[in-house]
Amino acid sequence: MSVKMVIAVVGTTAALFAGACTGSGGEPEGPSQPERAPAAAAEPPRDPPPVTCTHTATDQEQARALLAQAAPGQTLCFAGDGLRGADLEASASGTPEQPIVLVGRDTTVGSVSVEGDHVVVDGFTTADGDGLTLTGTGITARGNEVLRAHDDGIGCQCTDADIEDNVVREADGTGIRIEGERISVLGNDVSGSVMRESNDADGIRFFGTGHRISANKVHDISDDGYPDPPHTDCFQTYDNSSPPTRDVEISGNTCHNVDHQCLIATAEEAGQNNAVGRSRSLRFVGNTCAVEGSQAVLVRWFPEITVRDNEISGPDLANGVYIANGSTSATVVHNRFRGDYPMVEVDESSRPGLRVEGNQRF
């Protein structure tokens, strides 16, 4: 939903995995991407931990065979130039006690797709493909680098999943998109999302219940250079053709150099169907927002939002937090705002249950 408002493996296995591995492995072209300033450099990735491989694949035929025969408790490693550009598809499931672990090192694949339960995707680099596509329960994606995905960089339709310490660059659409129940999105770095075949360019989108989105960096997403520009936001949820969103906490993130909202939470479909409250209960706490939009936080048809202890700035802000369309029982407290504009504006329909206090300028 777009809203812009102005309101008053080469070499031996031993060499690749430091002696730890054992065993053996038996779209249409769209419009050109607009020119844009390079994204800020991410912090250097941490050295991956040692890996003990059950089996290792160094070409696509071996990879297909390993994935077809994957069993709980196995660690399957993928490495080498023979896998460059490969699309890896995993459909087997592990168990909570014995997940299947897929490890990528020293290779760049096109994509990794998981449709199964209790699978770990660790340390892959994907480029110019479909990124990471994850479906299932108990999935973990950690320490991956997703470059220039042709769709969302990391997509997770999941329950009880963890998306941790990944780097996502220049995804076509959204850097990380989650849908389901109890997904943790922690410590990721998302930047440079673009609109090519997609209909928007955002950092993190979230749908569903019980998610925790914490300590992420979302930055350098521009709407410049497009004939019909996207609405670039750091964090977004909406209910148009999407499930309702409830009990979500977004905390300790940084959002900077993004051309529209830091957070946009709307439920227009519910509003049109006299069902406001279907999406509710969102906590936006301790985030740093430096954005280019008309407001940093925009909430519509979305009751029970808390906006607390955030630091908000931007050169074009008409207001810091704007709450409207029956978004009742809102709490906006102890935030800090840089600039001369209304810190908080709330329309009449959203005033029942409103609490606004302790906000200040810096």
Keywords:
362 residues; mainly beta; 31-stranded parallel β-sheet; 31 strands
Q: What features would you describe in this structure?
A:
The protein has helices at 13-16, 60-68, 268-272; strands at residues 55-57, 75-79, 87-90, 100-105, 108-115, 119-122, 125-137, 140-142, 145-147, 154-164, 167-169, 174-186, 189-191, 202-209, 212-214, 217-221, 235-237, 246-251, 254-258, 263-266, 280-285, 288-291, 295-300, 305-308, 311-313, 319-324, 331-333, 336-337, 344-346, 355-357, 360-361. The protein is mainly β and 362 residues long. It has a 31-stranded parallel sheet that branches. Helix 2 links the parallel strand 1 and strand 2 (75-79). Residues 1-41 have low confidence and may be disordered.
